[in-house]
Amino acid sequence: MAFATISSDLSYWHKQSKPLFDNLIWNIPEQKTGHVAVIGGNSQNFSTVVRISEFINQNFPIKTLTTVLPDALRGKLPPLPNLDFLPSTESGSLAKSRQLELAFSNPNATLVIGDLSRNSATAVALSDAITKSASEPNLLVLARDSVDLLSPESSSWLNRPNTTIIASMAQLQKLFRAVYYPRMILLSQPLVPTIETLHKFTLTYPVTLLTFHQDNIIVAQSGEVSTTHLVDTGYSPISLWSGQLAARITALGLYNPKQSFAATTAAILMH
Predict the structure, then answer these.
(1) What's the burial of 32, exposed, middle or buried (CB within 10 Å: 0-12/13-18/19+)?
(2) What percentage of the chain reaches a pLDDT higher than 70?
């Protein structure tokens, strides 16, 4: 694979204090539209999946919202609308199945929100389903521990278009190592070298990245980079990873297809 060269003028760097893409925040349909799947959970932990599904349902006009959980949880949850229980491993996490593949290919947007456990069979199952959805890819958003689980398999899915990865710097390190990327991202490095590396990485791989470094939320896609000071947002260093930002990114990405960089950047200042 040929690796992109780094531009020295930083003209690709967009600093957001006021909304850079304010029109997208207002571009939310009045009528319910689209199909979103929220995937995650295991037999011991599923609270984030249910909580984020409820958040999306209450805040965005989604026509169909499906919450996808392993069937090891069947009977452990009260009756909730649009719950899909998929085959699970013996340990109670998601297993490889045709239903799981459809959860990645049928909806207009799929959010893998985490609570997945560290089961290697689940990692392979998810990676395989993601790869099979790459021919006509819907929006895919990976967040929280799904990034940790899927990083070892990333060489098989990182070239999938229309994929957004919401990851801490430590998670990005794992991702970079997994694909033997020659320029490492360091937790201790200043902001500018980090921006340069993400610029180059997203010229090499067709993904959208969101991370947090040096008090800035950073978005990178196709070589373009935006930064937003955390103090200009409604987030804290902890709430940034709660799943609500991932939900907003999923919704704005659904309503604004093929505008992943703009939608992800706009979602940061959306309340």
Answers:
(1) exposed
(2) 97
